[in-house]
UniProtKB/TrEMBL annotation:
<dbReference type="GO" id="GO:0005524">
    <property type="term" value="F:ATP binding"/>
</dbReference>
<keyword id="KW-0067">ATP-binding</keyword>
<keyword id="KW-0418">Kinase</keyword>
<protein>
    <submittedName>
        <fullName>MAPK protein kinase</fullName>
    </submittedName>
</protein>
<dbReference type="InterPro" id="IPR000719">
    <property type="entry name" value="Prot_kinase_dom"/>
</dbReference>
<dbReference type="InterPro" id="IPR008271">
    <property type="entry name" value="Ser/Thr_kinase_AS"/>
</dbReference>
<dbReference type="InterPro" id="IPR050117">
    <property type="entry name" value="MAPK"/>
</dbReference>
<dbReference type="InterPro" id="IPR011009">
    <property type="entry name" value="Kinase-like_dom_sf"/>
</dbReference>
<dbReference type="GO" id="GO:0004674">
    <property type="term" value="F:protein serine/threonine kinase activity"/>
</dbReference>
<dbReference type="Pfam" id="PF00069">
    <property type="entry name" value="Pkinase"/>
</dbReference>
<keyword id="KW-0808">Transferase</keyword>
<feature type="domain" description="Protein kinase">
    <location>
        <begin position="1"/>
        <end position="143"/>
    </location>
</feature>
<keyword id="KW-0723">Serine/threonine-protein kinase</keyword>
<keyword id="KW-0547">Nucleotide-binding</keyword>
């Protein structure tokens, strides 16, 4: 539900947009909720794993879009906390959108920030040292 709440307020070309939210037919059986996002063709993880070559221009354009999206997210005082290639969606025009805000948090929240976030391979040093006091720098490290 946190993901829905955050994404409803985000409107940026490098952030995946929610198209529809499908609640359960009966409120009493509220076990699942379905979220329909805009259609994208693949993710960066699949492109990296394929035999398709990426030019330097592709890499620069992807990096530019990631940083634009991150700037927008951070300007809204939100930490994504799980940036990785599989959370970067792409289409045939090489448009990139950041997705999966399931671990995202508003930085102004005074609640305890868990240190068990960010997929291990993209985890910054402060989280490896079990710090719960971190900033938007954790997202930049993941890039």
């Amino acid at each position: 539900l946190r993901e829905i709440k955050l994404l409803r307020h985000m409107d940026h070309e490098n952030i995946v947009a929610i198209r529809d939210i499908i609640p359960p037919p009966q409120r009493e059986a509220f076990n699942d909720v379905y979220i329909a996002y805009e259609l994208m063709d693949t993710d960066l993880h699949q492109i990296i794993r394929s035999n398709q070559g990426l030019s330097e221009e592709h890499c620069q354009y992807f990096l530019y879009q990631i940083l634009r999206g991150l700037k927008y997210i951070h300007s809204a005082n939100v930490l994504h906390r799980d940036l990785k290639p599989s959370n970067l969606l792409l289409n045939a025009n090489c448009d990139l959108k950041i997705c999966d805000f399931g671990l995202a948090r508003v930085t102004s929240e005074t609640d305890f920030m868990t240190e068990y976030v960010v997929t291990r391979w993209y985890r910054p040093p402060e989280l490896l040292l079990n710090s719960s006091d971190y900033t938007a720098a954790i997202d930049v490290w993941s890039v």
